[in-house]
Design goal:
The complex is a heterodimer of chains A (345) and B (125). Chain A folds into 2 domains: 53-187; 190-341, Heat Shock Protein 90. Chain A has 6 helices and 7 strands, in the order αααβαββαββαββ. Chain A has helices spanning 14-29, 35-143, 149-183, 197-215, 233-251, 308-317, and strands at residues 193-196, 218-222, 228-231, 259-266, 271-277, 323-326, 335-341. In chain A, the strands form 2 sheets. Chain A has a 5-stranded mixed β-sheet with strand order 2-4-5-7-6, with helices on one face. A two-stranded antiparallel ribbon of chain A has the order 1-3. The longest helix of chain A is centred in the first third of the chain and has 109 residues, at 35-143. With 125 residues, chain B is an alpha/beta fold. Chain B has a single domain (4-124), classed as 2-Layer Sandwich (Transcription Regulator spoIIAA). Chain B has helices spanning 35-51, 69-84, 101-111, and strands spanning 4-6, 14-18, 23-30, 58-67, 90-97, 118-124. Chain B has a 6-stranded mixed β-sheet, with helices on one face. In chain B, strand 3, helix 1 (35-51) and strand 4 form a beta-alpha-beta unit. In chain B, helix 1 (35-51) packs parallel to helix 2. Chain B is globular, with a radius of gyration of 14 Å. The mean pLDDT of chain B is 92. The chains are: A alpha+beta (345), B alpha/beta (125). The A-B interface holds A 4, 7-15, 58-60, 62-63, 66-67, 70 and B 11, 31, 34-41, 43-44, 68-70, 73-74, 77, 80. Bound molecules: adenosine-5'-triphosphate and magnesium ion. The site of adenosine-5'-triphosphate has 24 residues of chain A, from helix 5 and helix 6.
Chain lengths: 345, 125
């Protein structure tokens, strides 16, 4: 039993081996002496030899355990690195996805803009060319001195009708262009400052008071008065306005009085939670995941362009750096939850 | 007399022995397959040096972060060897991270049987 002796030139248990050798020699020298003494020293030598063997065994076992532990540790480090890399890839993939999604929604927007603008401009154009034709015809009659009262009256009616249509459709186009511009708001277009959220909400609701009063709706505001934000009051005001206008246009049949509600909580981690809800008709299951899409409207033809909630979505996820969701709720009506940092990014 | 300069590996410490200056430094981790391979060369140069020190002293710096059981046994043998060289003035500095209680206890344990060797516990952070 002298492992290590050959390779490194020394044995870990060199000293112990020498003592064992010494013990053997001692026993040899004592072999003719007192047998009682001999046997007792023999027992001691045996015990020591066993103890050294035990030590060797323990060192070996413990080395092996430490080895395994080291390997496990290395494995752990490797796995962790792998996991972190995978996470990073995932993050990148997600970013790409978000970018693609943005591009796609931009594409949809541009397509929608073209389509939406086309209708009023097309109508205005055909009205204008109709007016042009009629004017040429009446001028021909006039120059030939062949114009009758009937002809002139008919022309006047045509001119009045087409002019009205042209004005209406140009106004519609101008309105559309205005809201498209809003879709593209960026954070620079709206002034950043610190403001008391309760004030901004109250001011916004006041500015909508005429519309609200006419319909007979009530608005309940519940917002901590000491909640001060650093961000874009104009953006919040715009978002609230769009919500309220939607409640007015989509929420209630004429004559029904609604209860609109704005509730604000300052949550943990400096997160503001703003809930806007009404108790109107609500949004049907099939429409729920489309309402934030640009041009999704259930009121096409009667003034809806389907941009209101898309603008809300862009404002909340953009300048406010937060999220907006349509909540599932048992109560009737529609309820939107906004969450955004108290200090805008 | 031979100097010794062994670079660290993943499982063995860096060893620097300067016989002219009379310094030995063992630094890093030690859990080799075969402890005698790592400590054998150190034992050899030490044996030579201590045998012909001729009034010169020896300073040994241990800067170990981790070692396994057979390395511990080898270290014990090494301290025995130092202690036995009664005619050489020997100073040992046992460095350990201030928050590594175990490493400190190992040092205390090793120093127990030393009478002739000056043994310093050196906490670092
Ligand atoms: N409070 C609400 N109650 C019921 N339905 C709503 C409510 N808010 C939004 N909706 C539904 O979501 C659709 C999309 O709303 P959004 O504001 O984007 O467009 P819009 O109001 O139809 O048009 P725009 O706001 O551009 O004039 C609406 O057409 C309507 O069907
Ligand atoms: Mg709307």
């Amino acid at each position: 039993m002298s492992e290590g002796n050959s390779k490194g030139g020394f044995s870990l248990f060199d000293a112990e081996e020498r003592i064992l050798d010494g013990a053997k020699r001692l026993l040899d020298r004592m072999k003719d002496g007192d047998p009682q003494l001999l046997s007792e020293v023999g027992i001691l030598a045996d015990a020591y030899s066993r103890s050294v063997r035990e030590q060797r065994r323990l060192v070996k076992v413990s080395d092996r355990l430490q080895n395994q532990m080291t390997q496990l540790n290395q494995e752990l480090v490797r796995r962790r690195a792998e996991a972190e890399e995978a996470l990073e890839q995932l993050r990148q993939a997600q970013e790409t996805l978000v970018q693609t999604e943005k591009l796609a929604s931009l594409g949809a927007l541009v397509g929608g803009v073209a389509h939406e603008i086309n209708t009023p401009v097309g109508i205005a154009l055909s009205c204008a060319s109709h007016l042009d034709d009629s004017t040429k015809a009446i001028r021909a009659l006039f120059e030939a001195d062949d114009i009758g009262v009937d002809d002139f009256e008919r022309y006047m009616d045509t001119a009045a009708d087409t002019a009205k249509l042209i004005v209406a459709n140009c106004e519609r186009a101008a309105d559309l262009i205005r809201s498209f511009k809003q879709v593209a708001v960026d954070r620079t277009s709206s002034e950043r400052r610190t403001f008391r959220l309760a004030d901004t909400i109250a001011e916004t609701v006041t500015s909508l008071r005429p519309n609200l009063r006419q319909a007979g709706h009530q608005v309940a505001i519940n917002c901590p008065t000491d909640l001060v934000l650093d961000g874009y009051p104009g953006v919040i005001s715009q978002v609230l306005t769009n919500f309220v206008m939607n409640s007015l246009t989509h929420g209630y049949e004429t004559g029904r009085r609604g209860h609109l509600r704005v509730q604000v909580e300052a949550g943990a981690d400096d997160l503001v939670r703003l809930r806007y809800s009404d108790d109107g008709q609500g949004i049907s299951e099939e429409h729920r995941n489309r309402i934030f899409d640009p041009f999704f409207t259930t009121r096409r033809g009667s003034g809806g362009s389907g941009l209101g909630l898309h603008i809300v979505f862009n404002l909340v996820t953009g300048p406010l750096g937060g999220t907006v969701v349509l909540e599932n709720q048992d109560a009737p009506g529609a309820s939107f939850l906004l969450e955004f940092p108290r200090i805008a990014p | 007399m031979d100097n010794l300069l062994i670079a660290a590996t993943e499982r063995s410490p860096e060893v620097t022995f300067d016989s002219a200056a009379g310094t030995l430094r063992i630094k890093g981790e030690s859990y080799p397959e075969d402890a005698s391979q790592v400590f054998g060369p150190i034992f050899n140069v030490l044996q030579d040096y201590l045998g012909q020190a001729d009034g010169k002293g020896l300073k040994v710096d241990f800067e170990l972060i981790y070692f396994n059981s057979s390395s511990a046994k080898a270290l014990m043998n090494m301290f025995q060897m130092l202690e036995n060289a009664a005619d050489v003035d020997i100073e040992v500095n046992w460095q350990f991270m201030a928050d590594d209680e175990t490493m400190k206890e190992f040092g205390e344990d090793f120093s127990e049987d030393l009478e002739h060797v000056t043994f310093n516990l050196v906490p670092v952070s």
